[in-house]
């Protein structure tokens, strides 16, 4: 774009209108770039809203998912992503389409606080999910006693309290302005100095470093335990396929007596499903970190360098794209890697088709689906 710069009116750079970038000049995006960015944002929003609504409905309407207490964490994650899509992303679409922040100053501060809140709640929820899987695998016999609905709800409430606390702080201290290249309202790290630095350090430790360490340790323990369980599960799977004494051609022979017949081995289905669930949740965690890494790195660079031009404008915009994508990928992962969610999505599709078809005729096979 070269020297294509726009001078901001003084009312937009001074204290009167604190919702706009404080830089007196900035490189302007072209019309084609704004249109492309809006299209990309809208695609992410549609996937985020549609996919997360589908996940919430699946857990609510499909009995097998509804009965699993830990799925409340997944519902909470979907609610967080859905809120981000409707509050934060839609505001970005409006700002990019207008090529400026056209909404009110108070709404700018709310959007920024909500954005940080949703990011923190997502991170804490992923940590709680990893701890849940750790308890389910390592302490499987005590899992129903340790993981109850009330405790899960306590953890969820705590995540939102911490998210609100750190999201409200920059609003109260009035650190927020519209960042043109981030396409959203954000803390202006280069202006407020030490107070913002203290906030960043505390938020990084409590909201990212500590949850990240606990999450990593939990999944390492889980996969270590899974490797121990797998060798024991394989002989059981082979033994289950061997015809037991007292059976002929797969049918029980009433005339035969097998007093020493051992009880049937436990079915490996539960282990297999648990292993697949752990794998899918690990993919969710990895996808989240991949999407959030550009956002975190750009913020860290801004804090360290503390100048308005610490990064090229497009680096900020790409980081925002990746951050928003984190709210849209989870439903896709559930649909690809979890059979229970696949059945739930199929059930919802069947319900939709049945409601539209007065005759009730449908080509979808739902014999294996139960509410």
From TrEMBL:
Main location: membrane
InterPro entries tied to this protein: GPCR_Rhodpsn, GPCR_Rhodpsn_7TM
Compartments where found: Cell membrane
Coiled coil: none
Record key words, sorted: Cell membrane, G-protein coupled receptor, Membrane, Receptor, Transducer, Transmembrane, Transmembrane helix
Membrane topology: Multi-pass membrane protein
Pfam families reported in the protein's UniProt record: 7tm_1
PANTHER family: G PROTEIN-COUPLED RECEPTOR
Designated name of the protein: G-protein coupled receptors family 1 profile domain-containing protein
Organism: Batillaria attramentaria
């Amino acid at each position: 774009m070269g020297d294509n710069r726009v001078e901001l009116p003084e009312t937009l750079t001074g204290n009167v209108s604190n919702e706009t970038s404080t830089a007196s000049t900035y490189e302007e995006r072209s019309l084609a770039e704004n249109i492309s960015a809006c299209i990309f944002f809208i695609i992410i929003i549609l996937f985020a809203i549609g996919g997360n609504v589908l996940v919430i409905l699946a857990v609510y309407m499909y009995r097998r998912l509804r009965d699993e207490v830990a799925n409340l964490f997944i519902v909470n994650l979907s609610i967080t992503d859905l809120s981000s899509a409707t509050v934060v992303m839609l505001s970005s679409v409006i700002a990019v389409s207008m090529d400026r922040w056209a909404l009110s100053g108070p709404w700018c501060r709310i959007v920024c606080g909500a954005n940080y809140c949703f990011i923190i709640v997502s991170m804490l929820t992923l940590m709680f999910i990893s701890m849940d899987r750790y308890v389910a695998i390592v302490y499987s016999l005590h899992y129903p006693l340790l993981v109850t609905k009330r405790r899960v709800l306590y953890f969820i409430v705590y995540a939102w309290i911490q998210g609100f606390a750190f999201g409200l702080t920059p609003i109260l201290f009035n650190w927020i302005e519209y960042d043109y290249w981030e396409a959203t309202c954000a803390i202006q790290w280069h202006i407020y100095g030490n107070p913002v630095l203290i906030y960043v350090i505390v938020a990084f430790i409590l909201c990212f470093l500590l949850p990240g360490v606990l999450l990593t340790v939990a999944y390492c323990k889980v996969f270590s335990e899974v490797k121990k369980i797998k060798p024991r599960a394989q002989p059981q799977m082979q033994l289950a396929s061997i015809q037991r004494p007292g059976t002929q051609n797969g049918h029980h022979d009433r005339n035969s007596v097998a007093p020493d017949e051992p009880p049937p081995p436990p079915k490996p289905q539960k282990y297999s499903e648990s292993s697949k669930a752990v794998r899918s949740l690990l993919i969710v965690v990895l996808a989240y970190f991949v999407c959030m890494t550009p956002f975190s790195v750009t913020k860290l660079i801004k804090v360290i360098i503390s100048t308005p031009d610490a990064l090229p404008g497009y680096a900020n915009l790409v980081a925002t794209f990746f951050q928003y994508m984190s709210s849209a990928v989870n439903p896709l992962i559930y649909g690809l890697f979890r059979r229970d969610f696949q059945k739930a999505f199929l059930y919802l599709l069947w319900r939709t088709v049945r409601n539209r078809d007065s005759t009730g005729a449908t080509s979808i096979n739902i014999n294996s689906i139960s509410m």
